[in-house]
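step 4 of 6: structure.
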Amino acid sequence: MALPKRIVKETERLMSEPVPGISAVPHEDNLRYFDVEIHGPSGSPYEGEPPDNLRLRAANYMHTPFRGVFKLELFLTDDYPMVPPKIRFLTKIYHPNVDKLGRICLDVLKNNWSPALQIRTILLSIQALLGAPNPDDPLAADVAKDWKEDENRAIATAKEWTSKYAVPESK
Amino acid sequence: MCDICCDDDEGLQSFAMKCGHRYCVNCYRHYLTQKIREEGEAARIQCPAEGCSRIIDARSLDLLVTPELSGRYQELLNRTYVEDKDTLKWCPAPDCENAVECGIKKKELDKVVPTVACACGYRFCFGCILSDHQPAPCELVKRWLKKCADDSETANWISANTKECPKCNSTIEKNGGCNHMTCRKCKHEFCWMCMGLWSEHGTSWYNCNRFEEKSGTDARDAQAKSRVSLERYLHYYNRYANHEQSARLDKDMYTKTEKKMVQLQSASGMSWIEVQYLNSASQALQTCRQTLKWTYAFAFYLARNNLTEIFEDNQKDLELAVENLSEMFEKPIAELADSKLKVDIMDKTSYCNKRRLILLQDTAENLANGMSFKL
């Protein structure tokens, strides 16, 4: 089946005007399947820290802070854009709205999906979710519980997981 | 250009509602198909634009979709209409497509048992959608069913297999070993056979022959007392379950009889209409047993006062009448052909129905006057 115009246009735009802190690249053999990377928003526990040996030098580059980099996979089904894209985290993340399998609890991925939304808007929503975890509407019940009982400790755990798992691959 | 499919061909047909969000007809159609067919939505389908809460009205919908889809849409619309309205409920009988209207208010449910009959013949309670449970009010039925689901098997088992420690009343299961029991909780030592103090057994260990000893008698009395509430529950539960079971058997009996009646019709020359009295009898047995069943749940929670006796008399009369009818009903075919028995069955049938109504009227009156329950 030929790739619908809508997907072609979206892909083109993702390439030509990428969203800051977000990248989405389709697989060559399956243009409906995207490798996604989202940078943890600054000021959030998912921001990440530079590796020890870079810390000194990093001080000189405060305007480009190191970020936690989260990998996700995104798939556009045949019914897209009538149904939302399928998306999940591949990088382990400690977040009340993301479960062990990386599935995400987000309204625009479920009942608030509209065909007028796009891949870029969804990815922005996910980035925003990283900046504002919502333990009152949890998917990972145990994480949400920690979050409510001792927010500081939960944030510390989230930071720890970020520096452990969400590290950019060395190029 | 259509924002959904990004198509920008010339002459592309598009559609927009008053909100002005314009998309091509094709995308609109796909969108509606998805919503109606896959998500089962109807009355709340919004404009496809993000965050636009304009509902797609029936007229726009008819313009856009195939007649088949708009049929499904109507169906869903009716469903939401009934579901959203407090005075309407779907009949819960299998394959029945009717909705029933009843003006009962939620707060009246402790005083009335709003039983309705659907045109399909199924009778159910409008308050909780369970099958007819007169005379017991919904709240009581809910408690009873929960109690039975939680307790009946457990209670039976406890009654059959355990005893309580004579000192601290902990329930104890003896799953082996000798009769010398030491309570895990209070360390009380007693004999499983006579429930008396172990220390009084002297040298006759492992072979209790001290049934008449005082400590044993006292302990057994205490035991009996603590069993009373359990026995009381089982008393009502067994009768409740018995009527449920019997109603099923009566129904089977009727199906069997019905077959034989067909044979009988050809053998004895009775016409179809002449054997219908058996059908009425079967119906009466079912409904009366249904009512009797619930009188036991009702009685379990009933606080005792002088009205209770009237209720119990009514219950006894109905039960007796039902058992009589049931017995006649089970007679072999050859006897059923007897015209005297036929008259008897017809009389008993109407008597049962009458007793049932009397019982229900009496309880309904008492309920409305604020009957008290021990919940």
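step 5 of 6: annotate
 - Chain B has four domains: 14-84, 86-132, 165-212, 232-368.
 - Residues 202 and 210 of chain B are 10 Å apart (CA to CA).
step 6 of 6: archive
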